[in-house]
Amino acid sequence: MNPSIPWSRPDVGDSDLKAIMEAFTDDWLTMGPRTDRFEQAMARRMSRCHAVAVSSGSVALDIALRTLGVGPGDEVIVPAITYFATAAAVSRVGAVPVFVDVQPQNLNLDADVIVDALSPRTRGIVYIDYGGLPADFDRLDALARAHGLFLLHDAAHSLGGLYHGHPLGSQTPLSTMSFHMAKVMTCVEGGMIFTDDDQLAHTLRLYRNQGESDKYIHSKLGYNARMTDISAAIGLNQLNHLDRYLDGRRRVCRAYDRHFDQLGIDTLSNPHPDTRAAPFLYSVLLDERDQVAAGLKERGIDTRVCYPMPLYRQPVYLEGEAPSRHQPCPVSERISKRILNLPLFPSMSDDQIDQVVHSIDALNQGPLVSGL
């Protein structure tokens, strides 16, 4: 049964369908002129010189790491709380993710504990902006420079945010983004890599297209990671509406903030001045999270848990299929048991917001049925 209030509802409609049909009638379906236009438009939006469109945010991370020369024998610092793809990309290129704890107020990588995780094999740091809350880039950048490490931004949650007046995702030599269906804007599936470096951009494009430097001449072991012009057509249309999507999501976040502040329910927050969060996730912290989530589901309200455990507890790492190591992560252990991500989409009505808030208040305070 579909929930009456979904966790996410992508804003797709007739204009997206029209964009797809126009791509069909132009008789160019694979990577072509629309992909070029989408790259140029996103580069302008992100204040970057180059944008390289790919088939997913996950493969964007793989290609970025390969372009940085990461491989077997290397270690890469990764936050213990992030989507699996952040660490899986490190593993797929043959390196070892080293999981480090996060800050309690925003679940972003804690610069204070990274130094203890470094080793002679450490090549770099991958960080995210959890739910769109800006990470402490200045401190991460200073630490990376002091130790001769690369800093790669997995900006899958970051579209629409600002850091000291600049778009989140424009701070590092390489950054990646996802346009999955649940993101702020979508291509249905798709991703992008951003850089200001001409040589890095050239290498990224080689890896995207089977390592092909000329027709049927292959200078690298690349990927078939091309974005189709159909996906790019959707992306171009979505980009035209991005500010409206962001405004709608921020309206919901402000309403949640007012309600949960009055109710005394803990939420994540943005502690950094002169920054603006991207409205991707809205998160509350509840001691009886699982029972509240089950109660919400009974009421037709869909939620997510991003993420249910520190990544080093995922079976692929815990059981040793992929090597990893981790530092003590008390914050990640504690908050992964309390975090709950609430419905958030631009068309969410005030009545739907009130229904979510009132249901959480009732379930959080009232008798909770064991085993729900």
UniProtKB/TrEMBL annotation:
InterPro entries: DegT/StrS_aminotransferase, PyrdxlP-dep_Trfase, PyrdxlP-dep_Trfase_major, PyrdxlP-dep_Trfase_small. Transmembrane segments: none annotated. Pfam families: DegT_DnrJ_EryC1. It comes from the Bacteria. Coiled coil: none annotated. GO terms for biological process: polysaccharide biosynthetic process. Keywords: Aminotransferase, Pyridoxal phosphate, Transferase. Gene3D superfamilies: Aspartate Aminotransferase, domain 1, Type I PLP-dependent aspartate aminotransferase-like (Major domain). GO terms for molecular function: pyridoxal phosphate binding; transaminase activity. The active site is at 183 (proton acceptor). The modification N6-(pyridoxal phosphate)lysine is found at residue 183. Belongs to the DegT/DnrJ/EryC1 family. This is DegT/DnrJ/EryC1/StrS family aminotransferase. It comes from Ferrimonas sediminicola.
